[in-house]
Amino acid sequence: MSDRPIRVLIAKAGLDGHDRGAKVVAQALRDAGMEVVYTGLRQTPEMIVKAALEEDVDAVGLSLHSGAHMTIFPRVLELLHAAGLTHVLLTGGGVIPDADRATLQNGGVGQLFGPGTPTRDLAHYIEKEVARRRAAN
Amino acid sequence: MTLDAAAILSGDRRAIARGLTEIESGGPAGVTLLDAVWSKTGRARRVGVTGPPGAGKSSLVAGLVRMLRGRQERVGVICVDPTSPFTGGALLGDRHRMSREAFDDSVFVRSLATRGNLGGLSRSAPAALDLLDAAGFDSVIVETVGVGQSEVEVVATADTIVVVLSPESGDAVQAMKAGLLEVADVLCVNKADRDGADEMALALSNMLDLREGLAWRPLVVKTNALLDIAPLTDAIDAHQAWLGEDGRLGKRRRDATMQRLRWLVGDLATERLLRDAEALLEREVAAVHAGSCSVAHAAQRAVEEILA
Ligand SMILES: Nc1nc2c(ncn2[C@@H]2O[C@H](COP(=O)(O)OP(=O)(O)OP(=O)(O)O)[C@@H](O)[C@H]2O)c(=O)[nH]1
Ligand SMILES: [Mg+2]
């Protein structure tokens, strides 16, 4: 069981209308050997968490560019916990000021990646963090 | 009964999701779980949807879900996408096409990757449907890309099999090659808004005319998945009504179980035969390369010896 592929949900939250970046990330994680459920644009926190639950993923990667990160990340985390998914890593990226990033990470969100981060870094982070969480469970 | 099984029977989503993970991994825990809920299976209608890449399968499944929700049914969906043989990763993109429909407490959607083990998929995907069936979904739908034998086998255990084609290049030829036309109960020419749909539907009908002695002549329908799928839902209803007569559904399900049993017995038998057979096989390789017999002969002899 422990060598089953890492499963990740990639979602785009918020109202802005393009998902190129999220698709690139999804493909990169696939190429890194993960099973990536791609859910597309304009996902609400409720939709994201329902999908994470049904797909039994290890991690959720949120792509966010609308500036709503201070509401959406905490909301997704809260709903994940309410659904009993405390083991699921919530990570993601977008244009997020350092101070906000620190606040979110202190609140239990995983590492957040700025635009232009090599996808390899994201893949390595998810691998390492999911391995740690699986071992702890 | 284990706690998990009780939770699954009560429709607990998290328990269902974890149960599907066990089944997908193919280990003994999945078998134990299915045993525990088995008496509750057999109630859901099973629809399989397959066809070439991009034909519109997921869009049609989304439409089917909407239609079934209109009838107040609870609907479970299993979407299968291929694992990359090079990286072991998979991009599971079907949920994306039904993300609105999936956001409904009476709908459960799960994506599965083939995990580089196509044979295994025809074992685990029907078992995933069994679990959703036991969990109380009224209809369960499975989508696979119909590109090879195993993917076709996955849907072959459904009550009603829909093969989706689009009028675009070569779909009909591809479908024939993959043996898709033989398994179809409904042939759906999707993207009817594109050129060539009428011609394709006609060609398929003509092809069906050549097949004699069919108990059920597959229905050919045209849809635009983005606008109206009523012709497809009507055809599925017609097939299910037909199945409902003269004990046909029971017979079909017994045939499906026989098929699944053959696969599983074959797997288990192979595994048993090959266990501890390495030395014996090495000897046969040496015999073949020494020129004393053909590979086929060596295989026969090896099986005789293992079973002796
Ligand atoms: N014009 C038109 N486009 C359609 C129709 N049905 C689906 N599409 C589009 O075709 C593309 C593929 O649709 P999907 O539903 O993802 O097809 P699929 O067969 O599930 O694809 P895979 O799972 O990747 O094999 C999408 O861009 C759809 O919007 C249709 O009836 N007409
Ligand atoms: Mg699809």
SSE order and pairing:
The complex is a heterodimer of chains A (137) and B (308).
Chain A: E1 7-13, H1 20-31, E2 35-43, H2 45-55, E3 59-64, H3 69-82, E4 89-94, H4 98-106, E5 112-113, H5 119-136
Parallel strand pairs in A: 1-2, 1-3, 3-4, 4-5
Chain B: H1 3-9, H2 13-25, H3 28-37, E1 45-51, H4 57-70, E2 75-81, E3 90-92, H5 94-97, H6 99-102, E4 107-113, H7 118-134, E5 139-145, H8 149-156, E6 160-165, H9 171-177, H10 180-183, E7 186-189, H11 197-209, E8 219-222, H12 230-243, H13 248-274, H14 278-289, H15 295-307
Parallel strand pairs in B: 1-5, 1-6, 2-4, 2-5, 6-7, 7-8
The structure holds guanosine-5'-triphosphate and magnesium ion.
Explain what this protein looks like in three dimensions.
Chain A has 137 residues and is α/β, with parallel strands linked by helices. Chain A has helices at 20-31, 45-55, 69-82, 98-106, 119-136; strands spanning 7-13, 35-43, 59-64, 89-94, 112-113. Chain A has one domain (7-136): Cobalamin-binding domain (Rossmann fold), CATH 3.40.50. Chain A has a five-stranded parallel beta sheet, sandwiched between helices. In chain A, α1 (20-31) packs across α5 and α2 (45-55) runs parallel beside α3 (69-82). The model of chain A has no long low-confidence stretch (mean pLDDT 91). In chain B, strands 4-2-5-1-6-7-8 form a seven-stranded parallel beta sheet, with helices on both faces. Chain B has 308 residues and is an alpha/beta fold. The chains are: A alpha/beta (137), B alpha/beta (308). Chains A and B meet through α1, β2 and α2 of A and α2, β3 and β4 of B. β2 (35-43) of chain A pairs parallel with β3 of chain B, so a sheet runs across the interface. The structure holds guanosine-5'-triphosphate and magnesium ion. Guanosine-5'-triphosphate binds at residues 53-59, 94, 97, 145, 190-191, 193-194, 224-226 of chain B.
